[in-house]
Amino acid sequence: MKSRQALYFTGPRRLEIRQEARPAPAHDEVLVATQATAISTGTELLLYRGQAPADLPADATLASLSGTLAYPRKYGYTAVGQVMEIGEAVDPVWLGRRVFAFHPHETHFTAPPADLLTLPADLSPEHALWLPNLETAINLVQDARPIVGERVVVFGQGVVGLLVTALLCRFPLDRLVVVDRYLSRRQTALQLGAHAAVDAALPHLSNELRAELHDSADQGADLVIEVSGDPSALQSALEVCGYAARVVIGSWYGTKRTDLDLGGLFHRNRITLTSSQVSTIAPGLAGRWDKPRRLGLALDLLRTLEIEAWVTHRFDFAQADQAFALLDQRPDEALQVILRYPP
To answer: Is residue 63 scored above 90 in pLDDT?
Structure first.
């Protein structure tokens, strides 16, 4: 019997690589041999740390992530591989294709061709792994709707935050200021074109941010995007906002909680808080945008971004526990971590 190996989250900070029977493709499916997967430092770390709501659906829009976030479960949504078998109803042109899929970490998987994205020959497997995070960044910017000449602050310069910064740097903003605890990430944001990068650990953060906005009238930020994953950052986001400013929250906090002071200027300043989640299209755009169009845009933009240096670590699939421990315990050393699979 042919087998595959699959990574399971079995409890807080507990992972298992389990041996399973390798599935055969149904008549309308293909079998993909995984070449590489990327680890998400958002949802995956929440699940790894036991901070994800167990009764919440993993993702109702993806068949590969059916069920809840309760342990034990497979998770992950960034896989690149090659089609090695096809069902009898599948066009033979699919055999041998290199494809991207929103799929958990495992050595082999089946999927209908409609759930796969054929990758162009000039795009490396590692580069293609950035597609979901870039699509998330596009979704955030679409929800934020930056306006020419605005003052913008971005909290968090992890993978998604840096991609948001890369997109915003293409807008004619007045000022773009980013916030992160780690020096290497702040330096990367400045290289992308951010006007200033501020340490999130500073004691009077909102004052520092207002100073970096070069706002002589002290009107505050027009737009704030929060992608740090830290719910306490929301208070700083509110404090740097000006009148009628918008705060777009792209972080998913899981079961983490925080206290917010909503009794002061928040009430009088008509600040808008908006959640942004990539599983859906913003209602205001849904008449002209759908998920295939957005993913296609991500694929086009991906070719214009030089992000190879953002991959800080590569681990063999068998070392997945070491990869997650690194991201969990030493986040200052890691940015994008990739798992490589045996041929």
So the answer is: no
DSSP 3-state of 305: coil
Residue 195's pLDDT is what?
98
Sign of the C-alpha dihedral computed for residues 74, 79, 83 and 86 taken in this order: positive
DSSP characters over 88-105: TTS-GGGTT-EEEE---S
Q: How many angstroms separate the CA atoms of 229 and 235, rounded? A: 13
Is residue 222, in this structure, part of any structural domain at all? yes
Do 264 and 162 share a domain, yes or no? Answer: yes
Co-location of 218 and 315 in the same domain? no
Q: Are 41 and 101 members of one domain?
A: yes
Q: What is the span of the domain harbouring residue 82?
A: 3-130+307-340
**At a CB cut-off of 8 Å and minimum separation 6, what does 320 contact?**
7, 15, 17, 105, 339
The answer to whether residue 68 scores a pLDDT higher than 80 is yes
CA gap 343, 335 in Å, rounded: 25
123 with 14, same domain? yes
| CA dist., res. 117 & res. 297, Å (int) | 13
pTM above 0.70, yes or no: yes
- Return the CATH number at 158: 3.40.50.720
How many Cβ atoms sit within 10 Å of the Cβ of residue 259?
9
Average pLDDT over residues 65-87: 95
pLDDT at 225: 98
**Arithmetic mean of pLDDT, 137-163:** 97
